[in-house]
Write a structure and sequence with these properties.
single chain, 213 residues, alpha/beta, 7-stranded mixed beta sheet, two-stranded antiparallel ribbon, 31% helix
C-alpha cells in the first residue's frame, strides 16, 4: 500500500463511496471467496445465548449481522447512510446506528463481543490505535473481538475508481496489530493471514484475528 498522504477527508470518501456503490458492492462481495462465515460461526459458538454484540462497519447487514442476530442482541454501526438503510431492511431484528465509530460512546465492560470485518482498512492510521484500545475497554471480562487487518505494508491511499467510486484505504502494517492488541489487554485465540481472490482486484491478503479480553 502506498504511503502517500491523503489530502481529502478520508471518512467523507468512505461514506460517500459506500453510499454510491452500496448495491454494486453487495453484488461484488457476493462473488468474493471470503472466510467470513466460518469465523463468524466460530465466534457465535463461543458466546452464550443473548450476547450483546457491536458490529463496526456492518454494511448492509448480510451475512454477518443477520447470522448473529438470530441468537444475540446485535447493534450495527456504519458510516454510510445508504448501507444502514439497507441493513435495517435486511435485518429488522437488529439495531442500527449511522455513525462514525470513533465517536461512539459505549459503556466500559458492556459488550460480549465486537465484530469489525474489513473495517479497519477504512480507518485513518492515526485513529486505529486509539480505537482498538477503546474496543478493549468496551468488552466485558472474557469478551471477544473478531476483526480483520490489512496484511500488507503500512500506509494510506485513495483508489479513485474502486467499484465505481473513490475509496480510502489504510493499514498500520501487517506486523503492527498483534503487539498492539496485546498492549490493549487482548489475548489472541486465532491469528491467520488469509489470501482471498477479489473480482477485478486479484489476490488480497487480510489478517484475521479472534482475540479475548
Amino acid at each position: 500500500m502506498a504511503g502517500r498522504a491523503v489530502a481529502r477527508n478520508p471518512k467523507e470518501i468512505v461514506a460517500r463511496g459506500y453510499d454510491a456503490i452500496a448495491l454494486r458492492y453487495a453484488e461484488w462481495a457476493g462473488r468474493v471467496e471470503s472466510p467470513a462465515l466460518a469465523w463468524l460461526r466460530d465466534l457465535d459458538a463461543r458466546l452464550p445465548d443473548g450476547a450483546d454484540i457491536l458490529e463496526l462497519g456492518c454494511g448492509r447487514g448480510v451475512p454477518g449481522t443477520r447470522d448473529l442476530a438470530r441468537r444475540h442482541r446485535v447493534t450495527g454501526v456504519d458510516i454510510s447512510a445508504v448501507q444502514i438503510e439497507l441493513a435495517r431492511h435486511h435485518v429488522p431484528e437488529a439495531s442500527f446506528v449511522h455513525a462514525d465509530a470513533a465517536e461512539l460512546d459505549i459503556a466500559a465492560g458492556s459488550l460480549d463481543a465486537v465484530v469489525a470485518l474489513f473495517f479497519f482498512g477504512h480507518v485513518p492510521m492515526d485513529e486505529q490505535r486509539d480505537l482498538i484500545g477503546r474496543i478493549a475497554v468496551w468488552l466485558d471480562e472474557d469478551g471477544l473481538l473478531l476483526t480483520t487487518f490489512g496484511a500488507g505494508e503500512a500506509g494510506e491511499s485513495v483508489d479513485e475508481d474502486w467499484l465505481g467510486a473513490p475509496m480510502f484505504f489504510a493499514s498500520l502494517g501487517a506486523d503492527s496489530y498483534v503487539p498492539l492488541l496485546r498492549e490493549c489487554g487482548l489475548a489472541l485465540l486465532r491469528d491467520e493471514v488469509v489470501v482471498q481472490r477479489e473480482p477485478g482486484h486479484g489476490e488480497v491478503a487480510f489478517r484475521w484475528v479472534l482475540a479475548q479480553a
